[in-house]
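To: structure desk
From: M.T.
Subject: fold request, one chain
Message: Could you run this one when you get a chance? Sequence is below, nothing fancy, just the single chain.
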Amino acid sequence: MATDGDDFDDLLSTIGYGRWQVPGVVVTLLVASQIPAHLVGSPLLSGPMSFRCSQENAEILLQINSTLYFNNECLSPANIVSDSTMQLPNSSNVFPSNGTNSQLTGMGSCPVIEYDTSIFTSSVISQFHLVCEREDLQPLFQMMYTVGIIFGSLIGGYVGDKLGRRRAVQVGVAVYIAVVVAMAFVPSFVFVLVMRVVVGVTHQCMVIPVWSLALESTPTRYRSLVGMLLGLPYSLFVMVMAGVGYFIRSWNYLLLVCCAPGLALMPLSFMMDESARWLIQQGRREEALKVLTKAVRQNKARLSLPLETIVGNFEQVNPRLVAEAG
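Reply: Done. Structure tokens follow.
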């Protein structure tokens, strides 16, 4: 049977699981919900779009039964000839055209390009013309986010320990919102790639601290169950994104809509309390007492000893905390 002695987990067991933990859990769920749009969203955000290349002052069109077709072929030097001797490209693997507008690309193998917008209105590939000699740049969109995740995993724990779980989330949310909005509207692929790295780092600097906060506020007997259930939003929002992607076919607007729930993170982060365990470890006794008093009140718990005495027992067990608190 748990006691109100010198073990923090015993105190959490007495406080129980209830209203006090709700804001932290909600924030954790929302943070997790932001990951699918970036981690598995590439098929929708940077989906391939059929295209047709032509010269700057003329169109290379393949006409079959009065229907225009895209052929996904880039021009070779032999194709770039005068209008009177223009050669038609190979007709294999062609797709129907919807009469899209021509765009200048600056590429020698595809000076003017037209995209088939029957599936996607726009994607990262069409906006930055990642075809022909730029085709090798396509994987960078997804890869840069993964690079950010790697770096974020290395520093996310340190940020949470240094700033505190709550403050790390608040700083991360502010950076995340600004970066997503900028990424959706700035017309520079290099900038988008840099922002993808920043998003990956920011995600880890939010996920690790907030996950720690949620579990550090959970009694031992519920901790495994809560830890597993906190992963559900990821799977749920993968399905939600697929549904939203059916209705929104422009990559930047799809990105903004899928990341919109992140706007609720800032006000909610002020509603959740800092991890009392972390505060005690940092020697911030008064702040920990304030948080724990709120926890006892909101969860309607009954303690056999005053909180001041219980926290004092924690400090006696660890002399370092006494020195830091003193």
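Reply (cont.): The chain has two domains: 8-44+140-312, 50-118. Let me know if you need anything else for the meeting.
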